[in-house]
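Final report, Chapter 2: Outcomes

The project's central promise was a pipeline that accepts a single protein chain and returns its three-dimensional structure in a standardized token representation, suitable for archiving and comparison. That pipeline is now operational. To close this chapter, we reproduce one record exactly as it appears in the project archive, with the input sequence first and the structure output second.
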Amino acid sequence: MAGKFFDEWRVGETIAHEIRRTVTETDNLLFSTMTHNPQPLHLDAQAASESEFGQILVNGTFTFALMVGLSVGDTTLGTLVANLGYDKLVHPKPTFLGDTLRAETEVVDKRDSKSRPGSGIVTFRHRLLNQRDEVVCECLRMALIKGSQA
């Protein structure tokens, strides 16, 4: 188990997640069709080439899900009770096919749970960066985490 218990987290702590992922056309195509998203910018090379971006854009919800997924092994694997919500989700730069992405996480808040003694809520700021070190996705994730005695 790689995740940390609530009492092990410290506000200000940061993690550079080691796993990186190069986004493929198949990733984008499968995710877009699996979620019934027919947006031509994600699926139609001709339409995308005529857009201001000049190429296919990777589905933003895939980008978001990948960011969270890359963080799980170092944050909540085996210690999560539940994700309580996501806030301030932004995509400051687009993601394109072939981009290699990496994630970083910072603990920005933590507080004891009122309903689950020993457990607590940790707020993570996740950032996803491309190979040019541009932030392509960012959000806050509030997670209910088990205490080490829970």
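Archive annotation: Residues 60-75 form the longest helix (16 residues).
This record, like all others produced under the grant, will remain available to the consortium after the project formally closes.
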